[in-house]
Specification:
With about 200 residues, this protein is α+β, with helices and mostly antiparallel strands. The chain has seven helices and eight strands; from the N terminus they run αββββββααβαβααα. A three-stranded antiparallel beta sheet has the order 2-1-6, with helices on one face. A three-stranded antiparallel beta sheet has the order 3-4-5, with no helix packed on it. Strands 7-8 form a two-stranded antiparallel sheet. The longest helix has 19 residues. The protein is elongated.
């Protein structure tokens, strides 16, 4: 229906930076049907005679190219400062933000898989032999690592000490960072912030 059509139109513009609407022409009358075309399958063929003018659109599917007249396609791109024809995807403009969110998600996943324990150094008063070091490293992974061992009491051998490396998640404000990422994503794709962040943004 109309709701699905408009919804998909908005989604393509947010994801690809543009949308294409092709009409099913009806002789001597308005278009019979309007079809949204996938932007990744559409290629714009510029005019050889006039600058910044489209000669036709090529829609590529299953190894075949379907040529569409420029008058039969409505192209709705976002502004792109470096391209005369294609639109700039909002997420491309926010590429650094996407990278930051992905890195934070990877860090949180690794932290959870390690039982919520931040990186640590184990120091000893005496040096270990190669055999002792390999044994200790194996026990470290089997007994201390993995979420199944989270919260279990562990023992250190004589002379060992634990030192935390880097900032703990609380000091890094990971939850606050996730909230800010959500707000920035909302701004980029022009979605009201409360749709992503929860009811607190409505106050």
């Amino acid at each position: 229906g109309n709701t699905a059509f408009v919804g998909n139109l908005v989604r393509w513009r947010c994801i690809a930076g543009e949308a294409y609407i092709a009409r099913n022409e009806k002789p001597n009358g308005p278009p019979k049907e309007l079809w949204l075309q996938r932007p990744d399958r559409m290629e714009i063929v510029p005019s050889v005679n006039t600058a910044h003018e489209v000669a036709r659109y090529d829609y590529k599917l299953s190894g075949k190219t379907h040529q569409l007249a420029a008058a039969d396609v409505m192209h709705t791109p976002f502004f792109h400062p470096f391209d005369d024809f294609y639109g700039l995807p909002p997420l491309m403009a926010a590429a650094k933000l996407v990278d930051q969110a992905a890195a934070a998600a990877d860090f949180n996943l690794g932290l959870l898989q390690n039982g919520g324990v931040p990186p640590l150094f184990l120091t000893m008063q005496e040096s270990l032999s190669d055999v002792e070091f390999k044994r200790f490293k194996k026990e470290l992974h089997e007994v201390w690592a993995a979420s199944k061992n989270a919260g279990l009491p562990q023992m250190l051998e004589g002379g060992m000490d634990v030192k935390t490396v880097g900032a703990p998640p609380k000091d890094m404000q990971m939850l606050e960072a996730q909230r800010m990422h959500a707000l920035k994503f909302a701004q980029v794709i022009r979605v009201p912030a409360e749709f992503l962040s929860g009811a607190e943004e409505k106050k």
